[in-house]
Amino acid sequence: xxxxxxxIRKRRTFAIISHPDAGKTTLTEKLLLFGGAxxxxxxxxxxxxxxxxxxxxxEIEKQRGISVAxxxxxxxxxxxxxxxxxxxxxxxxxxxxxxxxxxxxxxxxVVDIAKGVEAQTRKLMEVCRMRxxxxxxxxxxxxxxxxxxFDLLDEIEEELQINVRPLSWPIxxxxxxxxxxxxxxxxxxxxxxxxxxVTENIEFKDINSPELENHIGAPLAVKLRxxxxxxxxxxxxxxxxxxxxxxxxxxxxxxxxxxxxxxxxLDCFVRIAPSPxxxxxxxxxxxxxxxxxxxFVFKIHANMDPNHRSCIAFVKVCSGRFERNANYKHIxxxxxMRFSSPTAFMAQKKEVLDEAFAGDIxxxxxxxxxxxxxxxxxxxxxxFKGLPSFSPExxxxxENDDPMKTKQLNKGIDQLMxxxxxxxxxxxxxxxxxxxxxxxxxxxxxxYRLLHEYGAQCRWDPISLYKACWIESDNAQVxxxxxxRKVQYMAVDREGRDVFLxxxxxxxxxxxxxxxxxxxxxxxxx
Length: 526
Ligand code: GDP
Fold this sequence. Notes:
Residues 49-58 have low confidence and may be disordered. The two termini are 39 Å apart.
């Protein structure tokens, strides 16, 4: 294999997702410790924006700063190059997380043994299912009491709508937690409370051997044997291809805080998780090992310093090799660009990189050239798909509160929308601008940033809307009729596409009933 192919095949680019507090930050930190990327516990800052902090602007700014540093964490482990993409925990930033999921090749889901599957996890899993992203589940906090593991597996299958296959199995839990049997490697891992890294790891191919009693005592040995027998009877044998196809999720148990079960997870992960996968562009499918570079922007991060309105565009390299100072084509602008200081993200450091390979994330310092979804290539016209906007859930009219600053306001709105902070619709009836978000916090962030970064003052006026959906029809006449009938409820998005603003679920249902020839879409990509 050429060195080029080797570089790409050793990459593992993934995200950890969970409901807040399940242990995502803790797990990330332990993984980084194994990679030698950090040396002390507590080094990874959680970029959680807590609900209580919604009015604490300094806090949000600080958090935004932290999340630049921890947006992508790269490290080497064994012969692998691992890129962890961080996702904001706060649900008001769910859209950010959705987009990040378009840039990963696989996902690890953290589930709390006591709380089971929670709302946020369910929502994020929908995106993984849509994209057929391979998923591994890590059931966390086994040092605490929680649900029966079999019940939890049923719950995961039902709630996340994916088949599961345990690859490790807990031996009791809480105060009595003894460890796990690693089905994947046929090893017995014994747990010693709060002794990090001192896991006893015993090769144990035959759990029917009486040796088991010596390690965990007779009652637990009997229980473990019957559990494993049940597992082997109920769940089909693990087949890595079903995992790679996104049909079966292997499950591991452990305790991130105690660094227990994490290495087993990581060792299995690097072996089975996919290297960079092909990416679908509108024109064709792009293979990671193609010679020439291509990539797309999945995230834009504004800089902390409001006086220098610069930002960082995060580019996922889809194919080939990205090189510093090479000429690349910005497809939407149709112009060539060169980047003299692209950054790599290694653990918490940002450093200038000379080259990056398919699977890597490159940070490009930018002053407003990029927007979310932009493609960058060595010259070929490629448009990458798969960065949908979701139908927002909260709406407000945005109004100018300082007539002297109209230009600044418009520019600010434009750039914030490019960053993907929220969505803008223009009401076709009254010409007013409507901002749609998934959470209240985004309105506060927009107002704050317009003032501090653009010197513009905005005011929010209420509008009572239930949903905005994109509409289309094969029958132009029907579409025209609909738009005439619903003239007060019609808007266009930034691409000029028709959007129907339904003010209640009932109105939407009636519209769908009355106009069967019109398609109503709830994501922007259809
Ligand atoms: P995140 O919101 O998903 O990033 O969760 P954190 O990693 O910040 O963890 C939330 C809380 O759970 C913290 O107080 C952690 O110390 C705690 N925690 C994480 N893993 C474990 C575990 O394995 N056992 C116990 N008992 N607590 C844990």
